[in-house]
Design a protein that fits this description.
Length: about 140
Amino acid sequence: MKVGPVEVIICAFRRPEVDETVVEALSGAVKSGAVALMDLVLLTRDQNSVVHVRDLEDHLQADWMEMIVYPRPFTLLSDADLEVAAESIGNNETALVVALEHRWAKRLSDAVRESGGVTTLYARIPNETVVTALEADGFPAG
């Protein structure tokens, strides 16, 4: 099975639920074919500091389930990923942890390989670094 680069993203929300605009944005990326949702976990810390973990097998709302491209969810997220997510939220807050396959990068990598080339680096530049560079070059922030 050929798979593109897979990335884990943790998003923390200062409320008990993930905003619908976030669900719509992720759904749009999946529907466009740019990414595939491979695994998803929601962590919620209640008012007593107890962390509740829900994954795709816990019958999450239909919006999440509709994003699954593969016939069944994978188990890619580690306990360490979930620990980092849990540390990022306080009481009555939620963390969304997703493993996304970058299908656009796989298509690019396949084309490079088929043309005789090789991908020699795939690295993520932190957002803050990009913003700082753009501002230094005179581009407006935001």
